[in-house]
Amino acid sequence: MKGMRIFNMMALVLLMVCCNRSHPQDARMLELEFRFDSVNRSILVPIKIDSVNYWFMFDTGSGGSVITDPDLNKIGLKVNRRDSALAVWKGYAKKHFSYYTEPVSSLIFDTPLKENVKFLADTTVGLSFIGCDVINQFYWWFDFEKFKVKTSNTNFIIDGLKDWIQIPFKIVKYKGMKVDLKIGSNWIKNFTFDTGYAKNEGIDSADVIINAYFRSSREAGKFHSKLDGKLGEITSIIDGGFTTSESRGGEWPIFDTIKINGYVFKNCIVGTFKDESIFDESRKTITLAFVRYFRQMYIDTGKQIIYLKP
């Protein structure tokens, strides 16, 4: 009798495990081509709305997804003016209103979204993009050498992930992915991990991998004081050193090498730029140039870890 009870309990546990597993038809993995936009310097991924394919920027620095007026007209999505309250932005010398579209239930080639998405219909952006409201519903594996992206609603099995650079992240509502970085020997918290941000400012001899913009010199001073090395000297851009630009209102430290989360970056900029932005706030941003230092990137949205393959 006791043995029968144990057998029944084991059978019940096995049945519960089987019932909780996703059905094979529910799990989907797609391999797609992506592009690098040479003008806007951004990652473009293909999405599909109403059986038509479009190129949208992949933007981990945004909490929500945005669609431009031209794309809105092409796709034919309706906007809901009653949902406009959260979309009042300051910028471009005046306030303007933006509106949310009707809910969209699938974007990544007919794979159903776990939660429907409303795009912010905005006239001030140059590219339509998917933000973390879409990104966080899938797993993403980018191969920057082959221009391939694999996406799935379940996690990938990738060998050797322990040898990749691992950066835990959290998603902050309306503000995208946030990470902590160890720069040199110091930890600095709360960077925006922003694949949609590509700061260049015309400097071709170095990559701007981090842009830290602050509203006050005091905040900037705190950030600079945590970095290894002496910042602020005016030297030449070549052979490392630092440079400043009064006309652009920023300070540009150029590093021969600097170690971030255990990885050595060469000939790059980590510093402060005046940012022409509609957001009136201080922020520290990882740019697309940071990501492009690596061969592959896997975003595990389940464990909330970004894996980067050197």
Number of domains: 2
Widest sheet: strand ordering: 1-15-14-24-25-16-17-18-23-19-22-21-20
Largest sheet: 13 strands, mixed
Q: Helical region count?
A: 5
Give the uncertain stretches in residue-range form: 4-25, 85-94, 230-249
Strand content: 35-45%
Structural class: mainly beta
Which descriptors would you attach to this protein?
310 residues; mainly beta; Cathepsin D, subunit A, domain 1; 4-stranded mixed β-sheet
What does this structure look like?
- There is one protein chain.
- This protein is mainly β and 310 residues long.
- It folds into 2 domains: 25-152, Cathepsin D, subunit A, domain 1, CATH 2.40.70; 169-298, Cathepsin D, subunit A, domain 1, CATH 2.40.70.
- The chain has 5 helices and 25 strands.
- The chain has a 13-stranded mixed sheet with strand order 1-15-14-24-25-16-17-18-23-19-22-21-20.
- The longest helix is centred in the first third of the chain and has 19 residues, at 2-20.
- The model is unreliable at 4-25, 85-94 and 230-249 (pLDDT under 50).
In a few lines, what is going on in this structure?
Helix content is 15%, strand content 44%. The chain has 310 residues and is mostly beta strands.
Describe how the helices and strands are arranged.
Blueprint: H1 2-20, E1 29-33, E2 35-37, E3 42-49, E4 52-58, E5 66-68, H2 69-75, E6 79-80, E7 88-91, E8 94-97, E9 99-101, E10 104-108, E11 111-117, E12 120-122, E13 129-130, H3 132-135, E14 139-143, E15 148-152, E16 165-172, E17 176-183, E18 186-193, E19 207-213, H4 217-226, E20 241-245, E21 250-260, E22 263-271, E23 283-286, H5 288-292, E24 296-300, E25 305-309
Parallel strand pairs: 4-13, 5-12, 18-23, 19-22
Antiparallel strand pairs: 1-15, 2-3, 3-4, 6-9, 7-8, 9-12, 10-11, 14-15, 14-24, 16-17, 16-25, 17-18, 19-23, 20-21, 21-22, 24-25
